[in-house]
Amino acid sequence: xxxxxxxxxxxxxxxxxxxxxxxxxxxxxxxxxxxxxxxxxxxxxxxxxxxxxxxxxxxxxxx
Length: 63
Known about the structure:
63 residues; alpha+beta; Erythroid Transcription Factor GATA-1, Chain A; 2 helices
């Protein structure tokens, strides 16, 4: 049987097994999972949005 695949916890970097026995995967612990959730809740992480021209900017480019 192959050894469990180890991944780095996205919060602390500790190597942790990636398997069903780890209920917090990809995190190493509930603590790291909750820290990450808190950072999302405080909007410390953001998904970048694509820049779109404003409607009046798009019209002025047609000249």
